[in-house]
Automatic annotation (TrEMBL):
GO terms for biological process: protein N-linked glycosylation. It comes from the Eukaryota. PANTHER family: ALPHA- 1,6 -FUCOSYLTRANSFERASE (PTHR13132), ALPHA-(1,6)-FUCOSYLTRANSFERASE (PTHR13132:SF29). This is O-fucosyltransferase family protein.
Length: 218
C-alpha cells in the first residue's frame, strides 16, 4: 500500500537525482540507506527512547559493507553534526564507499525543548513547512532507492523507508535497527490484560534500550 501511495512526481525524482549526482554516486551503486534521527528524538523519553550518534550507526554500516560489498551510503539526518561526521568518515573512505547527503539547513531541528516535537512547532507557525517537507520527501525517496537499511524502527520515517525498500526490491533487504524490533506502528508497551501467561510470554521481545524482555503491541 505504501508503495502505491508513494509515487514520486518528476520534480521529486529530479531533486533526488541531483543529490546523487553531486555526490559522485557510482553508476552501479549498491547502497545502504541510513536514517539518523536526532532532533526532537533526543528529548523524547517515551518508552526509554534513545538518541544515537553517528559512530553507533557507522558500526552497522561498515559491517554491511564488509559482508555484502555495498559501495555507497545515503545518509538522511536532521542533525548537522551527523552529516559532517558521515561525510568525513575515514573508514568508509578507506573502504571505497561513496557517501551522499542532502545539502540542507538543519538548524531548525536542533532548536527543540523537552516535550516539544517538530509538528508542534510547525503548528505554531515556526519553520518553513514547504522547505522542510521537500527535504523530508527527498530523504525518504533516496532511502527507498537503497538496497539495505540502518536506522531506528521507532522512527516513522525510518519505518516508511524500510517498507518502501521491501516493496520495491520484492524481498526483505539486509537491515539493522538500533533500538526496537520491526513494528508496523510505534512500539508501545502493553499490560497484557486478558492474556494467558503463556501468550504473554510468547509476545515478549528484547528491548535493546533497556535490555529487558517486555511485551509490545504493534
Amino acid at each position: 500500500m505504501i508503495a502505491h501511495v508513494w509515487r514520486p512526481n518528476a520534480e521529486l525524482v529530479q531533486r533526488a537525482s541531483s543529490v546523487l549526482s553531486s555526490a559522485g554516486w557510482p553508476e552501479q551503486a549498491q547502497a545502504i540507506g541510513v536514517h539518523v534521527r536526532r532532533g526532537d528524538a533526543c528529548v523524547d523519553k517515551r518508552n526509554n527512547r534513545k538518541c544515537f550518534s553517528w559512530p553507533d550507526y557507522a558500526a552497522h554500516v561498515k559491517e554491511l559493507v564488509r559482508d555484502y560489498g555495498f559501495n555507497a551510503v545515503f545518509v538522511a539526518t536532521d542533525d548537522a553534526e551527523t552529516a559532517t561526521a558521515a561525510l568525513a568518515d575515514a573508514d568508509l573512505k578507506q573502504l571505497g564507499v561513496t557517501v551522499a547527503i542532502v545539502n540542507a539547513d538543519r538548524s531548525f531541528y536542533g532548536k527543540v525543548t523537552k516535550g516539544e516535537r517538530i509538528e508542534h512547532r510547525l503548528a505554531k507557525g515556526q519553520g518553513d513547512t514547504l522547505k522542510l517537507g521537500w527535504d523530508a520527501s527527498v530523504d525518504l525517496e533516496l532511502l527507498a532507492q537503497c538496497q539495505a537499511f540502518v536506522g531506528t524502527f521507532s522512527s516513522t520515517l525510518g519505518r516508511a523507508a524500510f517498507m518502501l525498500q521491501v516493496a520495491r526490491l520484492g524481498y526483505v533487504p539486509p537491515f539493522a535497527s538500533l533500538d526496537i524490533a520491526w513494528c508496523s506502528a510505534y512500539h508501545v508497551p502493553r499490560g497484557g490484560k486478558g492474556l494467558s501467561a503463556k501468550v504473554k510470554e510468547a509476545a515478549k521481545v528484547l528491548d535493546s534500550v533497556t535490555g529487558r524482555m517486555v511485551n509490545y503491541d504493534c
